[in-house]
Write a structure and sequence with these properties.
By secondary structure, this protein is mainly beta. It is built from 6 helices and 40 strands.
Length: 593
């Protein structure tokens, strides 16, 4: 059974909407829903109906009412503004961003004439909707209580919104905005967070039209040329066809440019339930598109080749038992040791310590080519090996000290780290070792995983006794591989309160599985984490023993995930908190589509 990661609702700034942008006109409501590949345990955005301040309300009731009213963006936060002084009601900008704070045991305090709030900050949302995790920060805000016409009102509102972590987790939407990889026609999502009422197709398109965000500019580009603009608002007809109005200059785009633009827009709008197909206009006239239907409409399915996820029904699980590589039958059949040097002929001291996982379909075996080519790390962790299944020979393609579990990337290159140096090792598809540039800031990589699109690298970084998650960008220029722009993702203040991290694997283009624990002496268990650090959800508990490693293969139909426990058991993810044992006695595990 495949894992379909849950989508968690979050928040953002409606400043993404252009001036004058209204709600989407349609024959029915246009709602954003979670991706159909995600878990059935989806959380709908909650739109509360806050009450305006009552006559004679106390300071406590006014501040509490204001905090609750900030949960609803209806009518541009009309009710929330009612709690402010007349001067501040017009000046307050709720779209400037948001501060997410831990409200448990941290409530507003008041005196006879003042009110303030002090609480740990979980993270912030900027005006463009991007989440930024907090680093041991504390919110300290004085509401500046004042009386107007005998009623208590707030004269010093926060910059933007104040949102409790509970509300952040349950009442807002996460929206993927797609761009293209810098050097290849491959779609890569960046995520923003919007209040439920602002999570519209227009908001998504405006975010896309704003261009590639600064934090991913080194690795991404947009298919929307600077001379082409999105005009006005979108409209959705009775059968779910949305019309995207472009400026007249779009008619000058080549067929290839139109196809790239249509793919980027289609996938950005693919999460809205009311939208079935998309058409484009240029200056008010229909814009012809390659591969379009007779009514000149397209859908995200037409551009599935831009999303680097395999369509395999079930990936292959490979394990190492007593140094020997073999296939694991997830239905309970015996472990099948492979023939050859790293299979039946291997011994614990001559076998392998780790096998590379792949996130693309392996070539099928034929009579002339009976086995696939595997990449593995030798038992002494000093050699990166290439081995054709069944062969009595292995080839050393790179050397180092204390090599980590490798991964084969979407371009068929293989990547690992030598952690003693530390050195990033990348070997191209032709066996040539590429030059690499990486700055880890004095830290050591103890585990890593590259995203399915080959753009982001999740890194478990250690410095002394501390471990943490970092997300870096992978790019290539002049045949040199660069790993940089590493952003630390502190998860100690997340809802899972993780303090120790040991391994990581990608569940999708925007979600990770982390192995970690909430306390130093706690059992290591799997957690699902959003790539920007905006949330972590337990995927366990498991058997009470530490989990050592995790591998996963994201696919168009979901994600397969397997973990290896400290006592050698392989557990396959079945559904939300259920993991089924498929093998015991293993020392390493890998997966390939």
């Amino acid at each position: 059974m495949t894992l379909r990661p849950t989508r968690r609702a979050v928040l953002s700034g409606a400043a993404l909407l252009l001036a004058g942008c209204a709600e989407v006109p349609s024959t029915g409501p246009v709602k954003r829903v979670d991706n159909p590949n995600d878990s059935a345990a989806q959380r709908e955005g909650i739109d509360v109906a806050p009450e305006p301040p009552a006559d004679g309300a106390s300071i406590d009731l006014v501040v509490g009412g204001f905090l609750q009213a900030m949960m609803s963006a209806r009518d541009d936060y009309r009710v929330a503004r009612a709690y402010l002084t007349k001067d501040m009601a017009d000046r307050w900008d709720p779209h400037a961003g948001a501060t997410i704070y831990e409200a448990t045991n941290h409530k507003p305090t008041s005196t006879v004439a003042t009110a303030s709030l002090q609480a740990p900050i979980v993270g912030t949302i900027d005006g463009d909707g991007h989440y930024h995790p907090a680093h041991s920060q504390t919110l300290k805000h004085d509401f500046g209580m004042a009386q107007e016409a005998g009623q208590w009102r707030i004269s010093h509102p926060p910059k933007g919104l104040l949102v409790s972590q509970y509300t952040f987790q349950r009442a807002w939407s996460t929206i993927p905005i797609y761009f293209l990889a810098a050097d290849v026609d491959r779609l890569v999502p960046d995520i923003i967070h919007l209040p439920s009422l602002a999570a519209t197709p227009d908001a998504a398109l405006r975010a896309m039209a704003a261009g590639v965000p600064e934090h991913v500019k080194p690795a991404l580009r947009t298919a929307l040329p600077s001379e082409v603009r999105i005009l006005g608002t979108t409209s959705v007809d009775a059968v779910g066809v949305v019309t995207v109005p472009l400026s007249a200059s779009a008619a000058q785009l080549s067929e290839a440019q139109r196809r790239l633009l249509a793919s980027q827009v289609s996938w950005t709008l693919s999460g809205f339930a009311a939208i079935s197909r998309i058409r484009f206009t240029a200056g008010g006239s229909l814009l012809p598109l390659p591969e379009a239907a007779e009514d000149n409409t397209v859908s995200a399915d037409l551009y599935a080749d831009f999303i680097p996820l395999p369509t395999a029904v079930s990936p292959t699980v490979v394990a190492v038992v007593k140094g020997q590589m073999g296939r694991v039958n997830t239905s309970g059949q015996p472990f099948q040791i492979m023939p050859g040097a790293l299979g039946k002929n291997a011994r614990p001291k001559t076998g392998v310590s780790a096998v590379a996982s792949t996130q693309f379909a392996m070539p099928g075996a034929t009579v002339s080519d009976p086995g696939g080519v595997w990449r593995a790390v030798s038992a002494d962790r000093r050699s990166l090996l290439s081995w054709r299944e069944g062969s009595a020979q292995t080839d050393v393609i790179a050397t180092g000290k204390h090599l980590l579990r490798p991964q084969i990337l979407v371009d068929h290159s293989v990547m690992t780290f030598s952690t003693i140096d530390p050195t990033l090792i990348v070997v191209g598809p032709d066996g040539t070792r590429l030059s690499t540039v990486v700055d880890l800031g004095g830290r050591t990589v103890t585990s890593f995983s590259v995203s399915p699109d080959g753009i982001r690298v999740a890194l478990v970084l250690t410095h002394g006794k501390k471990s943490g998650l970092g997300i870096g960008l992978l790019s290539r220029k002049d045949n040199v591989v660069h790993l940089g722009h590493i952003v630390d993702m502190p998860l100690s203040s997340s809802d899972a309160n993780l303090s120790r991290i040991t391994d990581v694997a990608w569940l999708s283009q925007t979600r990770l599985c982390l192995l970690g624990s909430a306390i130093k002496a706690g059992v290591t268990a799997p957690y699902e984490v959003i790539v920007d650090g905006s949330g972590a959800t337990s995927m366990g508990p498991l058997s009470g023993t530490d989990v050592q490693s995790v591998v996963a293969v994201p696919m168009k139909t979901g994600t397969e995930a397997v973990v290896l426990t400290a006592d050698g058991k392989l557990l396959r993810h079945e559904e939300r908190f259920r993991w089924r044992q498929i093998l015991q006695g293993a020392s390493a595990v890998a997966m390939t589509a």
